[in-house]
Amino acid sequence: MTAAVRALEVVRPPARLFRISRKPDPWAWPDWAYVSDDRTFGNRWDDPKAIYRVLYAASQRQGAFLEVLARFRVDPAVVAGLARIAGEADAIAPGTVPASWLRTRVIGEALVLGTFAHVGRSRSLAHLRELMAPRLVHYGLSDLDAGTIRLTAPRRLTQEISRCIFEMSEASDGEPRIQGVGVGKLVGDDPDLQAAVGVHGLTLAE
Description:
Elements lengths: L2 H4 L3 E2 L4 E7 L38 H9 L6 H8 L12 E2 L1 H5 L1 E9 L2 E2 L4 H10 L1 H6 L16 H14 L8 E9 L5 H10 L2 E2 L2
Parallel strand pairs: 3-7
Antiparallel strand pairs: 1-5, 2-4, 4-6
Helix pairs in contact: 2-8
């Protein structure tokens, strides 16, 4: 590792990681055809220079469901607006996960080897705070802490942090090696799915 990388706190992930995505392969890289005008896919740690792509996975199976179902959470502003509109309700009520979502997704399980930057740890944040100081000022932020990297906006900041860490890494480090991958079908009565639906206050469509 370079000295810069050693300044970050690193972690070795648990043996298994979980990812939920579209059929047939949940571990497929996102297609460059869907990149946005800002050269990212709109996700928190995407590369703002569109050189590398990022796969998001969870160390806990239920955590993978919580992450992908978060977008179905009810927006209070939408609910308030609908309450003021007269007429018949929409076919799919807010907070409902459509049946088509379940049919078109699978869950992948992978055994992963490698060392990864633990961005949210104090040592990493202290080092990145120094490196990213001009960008923090640019975005009107007074500090870089665990709360800052979880902000919904500006998402561009975390994308720039992702690029910063990528540029620290030595080319010889390579990518994590995946030793084994499994793909499983999703069913409505999956206990982790049901738990995540409950946490988000959602409803699964029949």
